[in-house]
Amino acid sequence: MSWNRYGIGFLVLVALVGCEKPVAERPMVEIHGRTMGTFYGVKVVGDFPGGQQALQTQVDSLLKHYNDEISTYDPNSSLSKFNQQQTSTPFPVSQEMADIVISALRVGQRTQGVLDVTVGPLVNLWGFGPDKRPVKTPTDEQITAARQRVGIQHLHVDVSADHAALRKDVPNIYVDLSTIGEGFGADKVAEFLESRGVHNYLVEIAGASRSRGVNAKGDPWKLAIQKPTDELDEVQAIIKPDGRAISTSGSYRNYYELDGKRYSHIIDPATGKPITHRLVSATVITPTSLEADGLDTALMVMGPEKAMAFAKQQRLAVYLVIKTDKGNFILAYNLVPHLMSVFNAKEYS
Ligand code: ADP
Ligand code: MG
After folding, report:
1. For residue range 6-17, what is the model confidence (pLDDT) as tens digits?
2. Where does the chain have alpha helices with state H?
3. Less Cβ around it within 10 Å: N or C end of the chain?
4. What lines the ligand 1 site, CB under 6 Å?
5. Contact at 8 Å (CB) between 114 and 123?
């Protein structure tokens, strides 16, 4: 994910400010910060107990708590410790940690293994992990070796009323939850706000968002999907989430070229290789942002045709950008009228 001068990701979801006649605005408390290697923002319309300072402190500490559990950059996080333990012995975790892994496995099963949180060894092999970029593309033997330690069927969650544990039946499996971490975080911040009696809010963590109610003008939240270019403020679609979550995944920026071929950071677990199709961005609208954040990556793996077929079969609202020689082509699937207004849904350059 790369960031523009507004500190917002590319193909961003931005809260739209209406430019109609001035309306008396309600008070709004707004905070920004960093979490999970990216940026977040929260807007609360109305008062928050203790004001902006209290909101900032509480949201920061909540996100830090989850980051400390699931970060793969922090060798002391609960997930890193599980990854370091290279045995099949159950590894005790918090109920919340068990829940996030269960959710990750559920999205994995729903997409028939396309979203795979154990894909890390392949991500590293292709040069998108902490290891260095390869100077040569990996050999078939290397890919086969890495695939021995990839697959959600090797990851298990054992839960009872007072105990939760993760277990792997291949000792050197490596779990990376970063592809759903932002959505998970946005859900947790939304839950926290609801628990404080806040019902009008917008939470954004990188490409994942959760919102409810109205903005400072008293209008339902509207989010814009920008054109996938470097130009800012070019709106391609408007989403009125109406309480739903939205997440966008894209392969515009995170790729490299080797011997004239373009390699994306999205890996197809079925081949063990980076995707080569021309779907460059996927947006999904679902009840929770964890689901949306997992599914957007899964759609990116599937490619345009399979992603659209999956959306129809699963009755998912999606917005896909496909790169063609003539420019970008938009495909949208939308079940709820007024949820999405897509401009120039055919082609633009
Ligand atoms: P971004 O922060 O770039 O939007 P995404 O949420 O789309 O990221 O997740 C992309 C990351 O997910 C990749 O950098 C890679 O580490 C990981 N990844 C790649 N392929 C898969 C896959 N098939 N399933 C799960 N995670 C994947
Ligand atoms: Mg994602």
Report:
1. 333 334 455 555
2. 51-70, 78-84, 95-110, 120-125, 140-147, 178-195, 289-302, 304-314
3. C
4. 1, 115-117, 119, 123, 128, 179, 206-207, 249, 254, 265-267, 269, 293, 297, 301
5. no
